[in-house]
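Entry for the shared binder. Reason: the reviewer on the internal report wants the predicted structure included alongside the sequence.
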Amino acid sequence: MRTVRLEPRAADALDAAGCDPGLRRVEHAYQGLEWRLARTPNSGIFRSGYWVYKQLGFVALKIPHIVCVHRFDDDLVTIRFLLFHL
């Protein structure tokens, strides 16, 4: 299992989404994403040295979809970009 690290831009996006009253359970959705990437970081589509992965949310409960751009090595997953939306 790899460690997951957020770059500053991704951390800012997570903080902003957590403050959005239109989105619920952002932290739980992100924890699910982190769990998945720590175990299977090669999920998604590989483009230009980065992986792009989309985690589906649940619109009726206002749980956001998450788009994640990341790269990884044997020990670390680095999340470069996060986008939260319904």
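Summary line for the report: The chain has one domain: 3-85.
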